Automatic annotation (TrEMBL):
It comes from Paenibacillus silvestris. It is found in: Cell membrane. This is ABC transporter permease subunit. It comes from the Bacteria. Residues 79-288 form the ABC transmembrane type-1 domain. InterPro entries: MetI-like, MetI-like_sf. The lineage of its organism: Bacteria, Bacillati, Bacillota, Bacilli, Bacillales.
Amino acid sequence: MKTAAFQNSRLEAILFNTLNGFFMLFLVIVTLYPFLHTLTVSFNEGNDTLRGGLYLWPRMWSLQNYRAIFISGTIYHAAWISVARTVALTVLGVFLTSMLAYTLAQPHYLFRKIIGVFFVLTMYFNAGLIPNYFLIKQLGLLNSFWVYILPGMVSAFNLIVIRTYIKSLPGSLIESAKIDGAGDFTIFLRIIFPLCTPVLATIALFIAVGSWNSWFDTFLYASSNIKLSTLQYEMMKLLGSTMSSNSDPALLNGVNTGQSKGMVTPASVRAAITIVTAVPILLVYPFLQRFFVVGLNLGSVKE
């Protein structure tokens, strides 16, 4: 009986692992195919792309799509602005949000509930685009680099996530530090902040991705200052020019070698733009992946 039960259990395990392996392989294919197809289109000659039938390998290799993007000198400066705003907002946002979350997580702080409710309300109610624009104008942030930083430094959602994580830490850590004479800022900087690495890495990834992909704030608040243009905004304008009915869909920004292999199309340029804007995040994500997985599991286990 034991031998038969053992064999049945082993057969079930093999069957489960096999089905699970095929299912995970299917998910990998479904997940990766759109990106690989976009990569293929970006390296394929634009005029040939119109024929269709491209899957995972270019029929006619060409770098003309990427040349069409980087032919403008503003792209490089815009990329620098995007990097600068992403790094600055991520660093300041993580530090200031975590410091505020630590304050609101202290049971002896008198106004923690009132301030917490105030931040939660901002997640449900918004004044609207026009009042927000006038607020930014009255603060003197129009056509200023700080318009990318100050409005988004503290997020209510990120605040709640970090505060929840800090509340899960043992209170004895803070009590023992205070007995030793440490102040609140010292406790936060030397004890709480290092212990919050998983959740802070997760929040940092959220902030970085949102800041890197943002272009609408540039359109609203800094479109008249070319020195503050971001990579995504320049890519949006470039893509808009290829989709315009007034432009030749086979040419872009005067890129023309006189041969069909020198032509680009909206589809091919769109694919190249997608790859250019996605690669930096893809390079950063592997370093934060293990923290990101831990951060997503926050609050799943209660003790």
